[in-house]
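re: ur question from the group chat, yeah i did fold both. here u go
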Amino acid sequence: MMHFNFPEGEILLIDKPLYWTSFDVVGKIRNLLVKKSGLKGIKVGHAGTLDPLATGLIIIATGKATRRLTCFQGEDKEYEATLMFGSTTPSFDLETSTDKEFQYTHITRELLSSVIDKFLGESEQVPPSYSAKFVNGRRAYKSARKGQKTELKPVRIFIREIELLEFSLPVVRIRVLCSKGTYIRTLAHEIGIASGSGAHLIALKRTRSGSFLLDNAISMKDFENLILSLS
């Protein structure tokens, strides 16, 4: 039988479901702990937000372990991203509808491999307008959804590894190991431009955060069953 001490602090690796926000995961875990153990004042937090349209690893901490979250947030992240060539969207992903279409038949595996290699190393990246960044005290995506333009400042990012996993135009899949604060949606958009076409993100999965692996994570359903089974 597994034993947990949630008030003293536990680190939980969760495989975030599609369409859930990171706060949905935190709220669900907090509610489960309150329901099962009556821990009404229990602290629960996460290390690194995942968009609702992304899946994969999210690190959750409870109790006193929430103090360690800032350390985890600064670590490198690894993702598997699926890109659709031939069209773009204002949000750079599936949150918004296609706004422009492009030719892509000129793109070869060799061309794309050469293009993505150019993104290795340090660079400046402008966050997407549909992001949770604060601009003048307001989340950027709230302004974007109302059609209001926002000016986001570029941030320094570092891409340590980038690899082409699958090539089946108009869809390709890549693996990216990058620094904190890197927007894979923006990277997908920029790869489309650099390839002489257009592209947007259609799927994203976080596979690693620091030394923590998605392979060691548990689904929300399995975590719920585990908590409810504890004596």
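okk and heres the other one u asked abt
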Amino acid sequence: MFIDSHAHLEGKRYDADRDEVLARAKQHGIEAYLAIGNGDGPETANCGIQLAEKYDGKPEYPRIWASVGIHPHEANLANEAADSQMLQWARHPRVIAWGEIGLDYFYDHSPREVQKSVFLQQMELAKTAKLPIIIHCRPSDNSENAWDDCLALIAEHWSAGHLTSSGLGGILHCFTGSVEHARRALDMGFMISFAGNITFPKAQLIRDAAQMVPLDRILIETDSPYLAPIPYRGQRNEPAFVREVARQIGELRSSSPEEIGVRTTQNFYNFFGLPIGI
């Protein structure tokens, strides 16, 4: 039993075989996944909802949950009309999170000050919608700048006085920071989600964090189509490969992949307040 807590299956790379990808995931024990609602920008941030609706009630595929939000890459496309539309989409019964949102100083597709401003606005919208947030954070080369800014903004504008039963904390998705960054996030009530890059040879810092984070605060993901884990590195990623993330975490913690799968599945349902298997 596994859940892929973060994947992007709406893109063209899956148009030819999306049904097969999802059926293969179910055959490999992936019972659900969270379809991230960023799309190509605000106008297509309902992409996760569309997938959830398309595959709803089909037991041969994993159950699909969805999020909405503006990725930092498209922060310069944010406007009031987009915010209003996403608040409407956030009412959909399959939407359980707001994101991914945050800061990306590696690509800088949107100016950093714009990213920060939109990040703050997205957190305000998430509070209005009473949804936890999913954080994307990527610093520039050889720097912790985005981590420092991102965690500081979360501490000031999200965590202080805003942890409620209907919108508790959030998730640091595809965690790539240090043990200290993980500790700071844990202190603010966040879950830490690990992706396929935890299997890469040079990812010792990520593995160090995975050993430190309490097991009841860990989620696993693929971030498909990106970051396929070893032994699939270089291929298009897919939810079935989340088992390799569980295997790596299991090796670090002297547990089986199946045990990590069960525990992280329980964490997913507990964090989002969902009945198990529903």
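fwiw on the second one: The radius of gyration is 17 Å. The chain has a mean pLDDT of 95. idk if thats what u expected
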